[in-house]
Design a protein that fits this description.
42% of the residues lie in helices and 6% in strands. The protein is globular and about 40 Å long. The chain is built from 3 helices and 2 strands; from the N terminus they run ββααα. The protein has 126 residues and is mostly helical. The longest helix is centred in the C-terminal third of the chain and has 31 residues.
């Protein structure tokens, strides 16, 4: 399935706007399927919903969802959105506002990350 950072957040990404580059740091939680299992579930604002929903289960429970490349694909768009708009894409006020924000966020993700997601799906198939 591929390597996963498991804790992509504003604490672990350094951005240099002058050089237009970014570096992911803090690789001690790196997940290597079949070799090095997940040790952390991530930073609160960036944890994938499926990981949060099953965090109460024991690590050996087959229904427990652990960080993987797909959960990183949840965290990365959240991080980019926060860096660009200075607010979290899924937090806010009233319920209707939250639903609208989620719809806008997912449309934004689809528009800007679709090619990355398609690339990951192609890699997963091989």
């Amino acid at each position: 399935m591929g390597l996963a950072h498991s804790d992509i957040s504003y604490n672990n990404v350094l951005v240099d706007p002058v050089l237009k580059s970014a570096v992911i740091i803090d690789l001690d939680g790196m997940v290597v399927p079949g070799v090095h299992p997940a040790e952390v579930i991530g930073t609160a604002d960036f944890i994938a919903p499926e990981v949060l929903a099953t965090k109460h289960l024991k690590l050996i429970d087959p229904n427990r969802k652990l960080p993987n490349i797909r959960t990183d694909l949840h965290a990365l768009p959240c991080l980019v959105y926060m860096m660009l708009l200075h607010r979290h894409p899924l937090k806010g006020g009233r319920y209707t506002t939250l639903i609208l924000k989620k719809m806008i966020f997912y449309q934004w993700v689809k528009k800007h990350f679709l090619s990355s997601i398609q690339l990951i799906k192609l890699i997963d198939r091989s």
